[in-house]
Amino acid sequence: KEIILRFSGLKMKTDEIRERFLRFFKKKGHKIIPSDSLVPFEDPSVLFTSAGMNQFKEQFMGRNITFRRIATCQKCLRTQDLEKVGKTPGHHTFFEMLGNFSFGDYFKKEAIEWAWEFMTKDLNIKEERLWVSVYIDDAEGYNIWRDIIKVPKNKIIKMGAKENFWPSDAPTEGPNGPCGPCSEIFFDQGPDVGCKKSTCTPACDCGRFVEVWNLVFTQFDRQSDGRLLPLPSKNIDTGMGLERAASVMQGVLTNFQIDIFK
Ligand code: GLY
């Protein structure tokens, strides 16, 4: 009874979303590899694995590349999220992140096209329910969404480096190393959720919009003096919160109501 039906597409279990994601990217030529350990083995810069990209820092720098396309489902823990757990619908002590990665192979156009294809065809989410954001200076990303994917202009939101750079605010705050502008995909839970203002967009933090997928265009190597040097090649790093995707696909308002928590 606690389930609030607000989604008319497929009802999909978390396990099936994970399997479909990996199968989709396998068909697009990706090698599927296992999650890295939650406590990274050879990375002294972090205590826990906080994203799918962590295990590929070397590859983003252009080194040790065995496969140019990889997809994973990564076990994650974000210490900066811990204060939010229990206060928001979608932050956890532990979560799984689906990701596809390109090391000097495909770039923005394919990453955006495939993310859209997966969400609207494989997950069957209605296009009207999806909004996107781009980094304020990323005209290329904006144009792909507008001209190729045909997302209406009013549903493409431009945001700054806090929201649309990975890591967040990397140009000013660091850390050093691979980073880049990003573009996010949001699911609209509808005008009866959150602040209920007609002007609400994904820039509002009222909870109406669920940030489901982040597409990072990893093209810079941040230096200690703050300079963003181009990496040897342009890369893709995406992260989709599995539990958030499941909340969308199961028509519930918080991640804690999805099948795997039950
Ligand atoms: N590395 C991309 C993300 O975690 O959103």
Please give a structural write-up.
It is globular and about 50 Å long. The protein has 7 helices and 9 strands. It has helices spanning 14-27, 57-60, 108-122, 139-148, 161-164, 170-173, 242-249; strands spanning 31-32, 69-76, 95-103, 130-135, 156-159, 165-166, 177-188, 209-222, 228-241. Strands 1, 2, 3, 4, 5, 6, 7, 8 and 9 form a 9-stranded mixed β-sheet that branches. It has 262 residues and is α+β, with helices and mostly antiparallel strands.
The coarse silhouette is: globular
Query: Runs with pLDDT <50, length 5+?
Result: 1-5
Q: What is the strand tally?
A: 9
| Approximate helicity band | 10-25%
In this entry the ligands are: glycine
Could you tell me the strand content as a percent range?
25-35%
For the CA atoms, what is the radius of gyration? 18 Å
> How would a crystallographer describe the biggest sheet?
9 strands, mixed
The total count of helices amounts to: 7
> What is the residue-mean pLDDT, rounded to a whole number?
94
List SSEs in N-to-C order: HEHEEHEHEHEHEEEH
Summarize the structure.
With 262 residues, the chain is α+β, with helices and mostly antiparallel strands. Helices cover 23% and strands 27% of the residues.
Q: Topology of this protein?
A:
Blueprint: H1 14-27, E1 31-32, H2 57-60, E2 69-76, E3 95-103, H3 108-122, E4 130-135, H4 139-148, E5 156-159, H5 161-164, E6 165-166, H6 170-173, E7 177-188, E8 209-222, E9 228-241, H7 242-249
Parallel strand pairs: 1-2, 4-5
Antiparallel strand pairs: 2-3, 3-9, 4-7, 6-7, 7-8, 8-9
Helix pairs in contact: 3-4
The chain binds glycine.
